[in-house]
Design goal:
It is a single chain. The protein is α/β, with parallel strands linked by helices. It is 30% helix and 22% strand. The strands form two sheets. Strands 1, 2, 3, 4, 5, 15, 16, 17 and 18 form a nine-stranded mixed beta sheet that branches. Strands 6, 7, 8, 9, 10, 11, 12, 13 and 14 form a nine-stranded parallel beta sheet that branches. Helix 1 links the parallel strand 6 and strand 7. The longest helix is centred in the middle third of the chain and has 18 residues. The radius of gyration is 21 Å and the shape is globular. 55% of the residues are buried. Bound molecules: dihydropyrimidine-2,4(1H,3H)-dione (DUC) and zinc ion (3 copies).
């Protein structure tokens, strides 16, 4: 019978290899990979292009309340549109449990925000801020069985942080249920100690954000999270790792037999703390946690990408507006780094930055790029094999890359709801030109052709297929 779509003459890549092939799609799935395929309703010529599994960004914040009346700059419509134009076919935002809320209440709210609004497929992580006996004992086992198989906990932020006893309980439930725990590793007491010192000294410009969250704060918390996972004997994901010392903790834990997945992000490859040290309130645009470090840390993170300390490369898209008194710019009228919301936009620039700086500069090959940006996300968080590869029977999520495209990143040309890009002016080679979600062409040659609502919610599987044997 006739195919719906053939993508012909491209260089097809998976996490394992790359090869010249045509691929055929029917009913939203890959049905054939071969040579000289014919007989389809539609045909896209991908000569000179790379045909890759659609990007999966497993670390994205959308519509999350951020304290003090601060509102995130993206809802599900703008966030998924930006993701789509950046070559992503699935994103995994967080469903934040607020204190006193049940997880079900929180999920009902996020689903209501997402339903009918999305341009990419979406799957949710949970954030546990209130690990009561009923949340851990009753709710979580049912939720894990019902498609919510990953959860994040924080070691920092008043109102969000869990203590070690609480983290141990969450890890224990994850061991029982097969859920995957992601940890934000920074020592809150050490940060509060340094903040008090800086405020006393009147050192409250945006750069103080970086100096109150030094590497030692992240390294210690990373070590502690890994040790707690070791005690419970359960796999763990260490998110947004910013430097070599935290990486060493991951490598050492792995050598002891801890099953750990490491994630890093674009900001740790191309920004440094100097971007927060211009003595200028505009530095607030670069405030994220953990903060970007120095050139040596960047080199270490690149090495982690090349050698496998890191399995995941995510954006940690967490968008706020700069030119808005409620957000990055003098929030609440108080010129103090403590009130700058933590987080930067990046869901649309994640893939072009790694493609240009990684693949085009010869640091990584195409299969490694695919693993870091798609396949490993699907495997870690229970979306594989439905997503994350070009394989017969999988969802036809495809991003076609023009490796010759030259672009200078300009926020004016991006699609998120923020009003700046931390990467403004960065020159990149290679850009995702056509993006296909479950067989539906959504962006074609840089033009939006799909519709809001075509992206769907995708439950994750109960027992995630691990990339490090944690299945
Ligand atoms: N942690 C995140 O994961 N994202 C943005 C801010 C933060 O602290
Ligand atoms: Zn975090
Ligand atoms: Zn200082
Ligand atoms: Zn984040």
């Amino acid at each position: 019978s006739e195919f719906d779509l053939i993508i012909a003459n491209g260089t097809v890549a998976t996490a394992a290899n790359f090869f010249a092939a045509d691929i055929a799609v029917k009913d939203g799935k890959f049905v054939q990979i071969g040579q000289n395929l014919t007989g389809s309703k539609r045909r896209i010529d991908a000569s000179g292009k790379f045909v890759l599994p659609g990007g999966i960004d497993s670390h994205v914040h959308i519509s999350q309340p951020s304290g003090e009346g601060i509102v995130m700059a993206d809802d599900f419509e703008s966030g998924t549109l930006s993701a789509l134009f950046g070559g992503n076919t699935t994103i995994m935002p967080f469903c934040l449990q607020e204190k006193g809320q049940s997880m079900r209440e929180a999920l009902t709210a996020y689903h209501a925000l997402a339903d009918g609004q999305c341009y990419t497929d979406v799957s949710f992580h949970l954030i546990i801020s209130d690990p009561t006996a009923s949340v851990l004992g009753q709710e979580l086992p049912a939720l894990v069985a019902g498609g919510y198989t990953s959860l994040k906990v924080f070691m920092t932020y008043e109102g969000l942080r869990l203590n070690d006893a609480e983290i141990l309980k969450v890890l224990d439930v994850s061991r029982e249920t097969g859920a995957t725990v992601m940890v934000h590793c920074e020592n809150e007491d050490a940060i509060l100690f340094l903040i008090a010192k800086h405020e006393l000294a009147g050192d409250v410009a945006p750069r103080a954000h970086a100096s109150t969250r030094p590497i030692a704060v992240e390294r210690e918390a990373t070590h502690r999270a890994l040790s707690l996972a070791e005690v419970v004997d359960v796999p763990i994901v260490i998110v947004h790792v910013s430097n070599g010392e935290a990486m060493d903790e991951i490598a050492r834990a792995r050598a002891r037999g801890v099953k750990v997945v490491g994630e890093t992000c674009p900001q740790y490859l191309v920004l440094t703390a100097k971007d927060l040290d211009g003595m200028d309130w505009e530095d607030a645009k670069m405030v994220c946690s953990p903060p970007p470090r120095d050139e040596a840390a960047q080199a270490d993170c690149w090495q982690g990408i090349e050698t496998g300390v890191f399995d995941l490369f995510s954006s940690d898209h967490c968008p706020f507006r700069y030119d808005d008194p409620q957000d990055k710019l003098n929030p609440k009228g108080s010129v103090n780094f403590r009130h700058i919301p933590n987080g930067i936009p990046g869901v649309e620039t994640r893939l072009p930055i790694l493609f240009s700086e990684g693949v085009m500069k010869g640091r990584i090959d195409l299969p490694r790029f695919v693993a870091l940006t798609s396949t490993n996300h699907a495997k870690t968080y229970g979306l594989y094999p439905q997503k994350g590869s070009i394989a017969i029977g999988a969802d036809a999520d495809i991003t076609i890359w023009d490796p010759e495209a030259k672009r200078t990143i300009r926020h004016a040309e991006l699609h998120d709801g923020s009003d700046y890009s931390p990467y403004e002016g960065m020159y990149v080679t290679g850009w995702p030109v056509t993006t296909i979600v479950a067989g539906a062409v959504m962006v074609e040659d840089g033009i939006l052709v799909g519709k809001k609502g075509q992206g769907k919610y995708r439950p994750a599987t109960t027992r995630p297929v691990g990339i490090r044997g944690q299945a």
